[in-house]
């Protein structure tokens, strides 16, 4: 399953690439601060591990908050689009961008868990709350490559550092 570092790093890298190559003249809408929020949002669905751990202490664990449950549904990510569009209409474009970035981070987390194998063993409830049917590809589990995420982390970090160095942008992150 993807590690926390993979979720955070990949989300930040993709949002940063989007900022550099797609937004170009609108870069200012997406600050370094927002990039940090992107990284946190990329890990946000796994907050169910903490919530569930906390609830279990008080014997209040619920099935819906099991790891890979409702915080791993597309709905959880799409909900942030609502404040996003409202803020955009109010011309608060920077704040709206934060909401859009959170949606992306959550959906991308779910996508990674779905493809590589994370969250619940049973898969992702793609259509919750309409249906509780679960879907998964879980490529890494099927291939028996449990240690691969560690290697992926290292490769992602190295390639990104190379990219930043090549663009002389390392200072952006210090
Ligand atoms: Zn997850």
Write up what this structure looks like.
The protein is an all-alpha fold and 174 residues long. Helices cover 60% and strands 0% of the residues. The chain contains 8 helices and no strands. Helix 1 packs parallel to helix 8 (148-166), helix 2 (32-41) packs parallel to helix 6 (93-117) and helix 5 packs antiparallel against helix 6. The radius of gyration is 17 Å and the shape is globular. The two termini are 30 Å apart. The model has no long low-confidence stretch (mean pLDDT 87). The structure holds zinc ion. Residues 45-46, 72, 109, 113, 118-119 line the site of zinc ion.
Distance between the termini: 30 Å
Overall structural domain count: 1
- Bound compounds, please? zinc ion
The helical percent reads 55-70%
The radius of gyration computed from the alpha-carbon positions, rounded to a whole number of angstroms, is 17 Å
Q: Approximately what portion of the residues adopt beta-strand conformation?
A: under 5%
Net shape = globular
Q: Averaged pLDDT, please?
A: 87
Order of helices and strands: HHHHHHHH
Q: Tell me the total number of β-strands.
A: 0
Contiguous uncertain segments of 5+ residues: none
Number of helices: 8
Would you spell out the secondary-structure blueprint of this structure?
Elements: H1 4-23, H2 32-41, H3 47-57, H4 74-78, H5 81-89, H6 93-117, H7 139-143, H8 148-166
Helix pairs in contact: 1-2, 1-8, 2-6, 5-6
Bound molecules: zinc ion.
Q: Which labels suit this protein?
A:
about 170 residues, mainly alpha, binds zinc ion
Summarize the structure.
The chain is mainly α and 174 residues long.
């Amino acid at each position: 399953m993807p590690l926390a570092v993979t979720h955070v790093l990949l989300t930040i890298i993709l949002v940063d690439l989007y900022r550099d190559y797609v937004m170009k003249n609108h870069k200012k809408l997406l600050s370094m601060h927002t990039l940090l929020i992107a990284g946190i949002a990329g890990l946000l669905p796994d907050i169910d591990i903490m919530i569930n751990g906390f609830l279990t202490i008080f014997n209040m664990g619920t099935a819906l908050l099991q790891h890979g449950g409702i915080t791993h549904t597309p709905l959880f990510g799409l909900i942030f689009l609502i404040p996003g569009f409202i803020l955009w209409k109010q011309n608060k474009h920077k704040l709206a961008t934060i909401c859009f970035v959170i949606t992306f981070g959550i959906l991308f987390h779910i996508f990674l868990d779905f493809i590589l194998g994370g969250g619940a063993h049973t898969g992702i409830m793609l259509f919750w709350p309409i249906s509780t049917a679960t879907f998964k590809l879980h490529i890494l589990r099927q291939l028996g490559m449990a240690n691969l995420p560690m290697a992926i982390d290292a490769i992602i970090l190295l390639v990104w550092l190379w990219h930043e160095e090549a663009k002389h942008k390392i200072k952006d992150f210090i």
